[in-house]
Amino acid sequence: MSKHRIELRAAPHQHSGHSVPTIMRNVVYSLLPICGFSVWQYGLSALALLLTVTATCLATERLLNRNANTLGDWSAVITGVLLGLTLPPAFPLWMAIVAGFVAIAIGKAMFGGLGHNPFNPALVGRAFVQAAFPVAITTWVPAFSVHRFSEFVPTTFTAPLMMPPDIVDWVKQQGVDAFTGATPLARWKFENVTASAHDLLTGTVTASAARPLPCSSCCVAPISPSASSWTGASPSQCWARRHSPHGLSNWSIRPTIQHQSL
């Protein structure tokens, strides 16, 4: 009597022939246009942030996997790029190093490596620095600054374990009359204001390095006897410059609170 052998295997049962490194590498290629757009918007600080986080993820991956070289599967590169894109461009580099280390060490290696982690490693790193550095991770800078390719944001090279400097004066030097720090999700949650698809796509909303910053929720009004009051959105952060090199010599910011009936 012939014996039949039954094998039980988990899906997928048909393979396309693409290896894990190939799939991961293609994901990295797909993220390159977003990285390029981020650097175009925020300049050197965004570039330094992306490179620092990615290099930290690669170094941590190598440090924790000395016996088996797992750098060739490109998963650490994806974690670094995704994590860098979720952080604000003004994020200090030493804090970015902490985020990259936590993403790989706690979000990935602690659970057994690629394929065993229950959470996205990049978001684990983001959640850690969100709790550890709440002020730095909610500090935004205006997109398309004039000198973004010739200078860094002052907070970029903050010394380790030091408080990032205030960037209010730096923002004023960029020729920005005003800008707010409320993200699209925050405005949607607290003010019931949604950003249009066009603004989200073209980069006119406040967010991380992968998304730029607007001046859309500020209340900017000319000072005149006939314009004694102004109503508008309630920004969480607002910088105003009374004397603009572009001729706006008498402008002010008057943030007001919108009351909604419950």
Strand content: under 5%
Q: Helix-strand pattern, N to C?
A: HHHHHHHHEE
Apparent shape: elongated
What is the arithmetic mean of pLDDT? 77
Give me the side-by-side strand order of the main sheet: 1-2
Number of domains: 2
The total count of strands amounts to 2
State the low-pLDDT regions, or none.
212-262
Report helical residue fraction: 25-40%
**What value does the Rg take, in angstroms?**
23 Å
Main β sheet profile: 2 strands, antiparallel
**What is the SS-derived class?**
mainly alpha
Oligomer category: single chain
What separation lies between the terminal Cα atoms? 78 Å
The number of helical elements comes to 8
How would you describe this structure in keywords?
2% strand, elongated, mainly alpha, 39% helix, 262 residues, disordered C terminus, two-stranded antiparallel sheet, single chain
Description of the structure:
This protein is mainly alpha-helical and 262 residues long. The chain folds into two domains: 21-138, no CATH class; 177-262, no CATH class. It is 39% helix and 2% strand. The chain has eight helices and two strands. A two-stranded antiparallel sheet has the order 1-2. Helix 1 runs antiparallel to helix 2, helix 1 packs parallel to helix 3 and helix 3 packs across helix 4 (93-105). The radius of gyration is 23 Å and the shape is elongated. The termini are far apart.
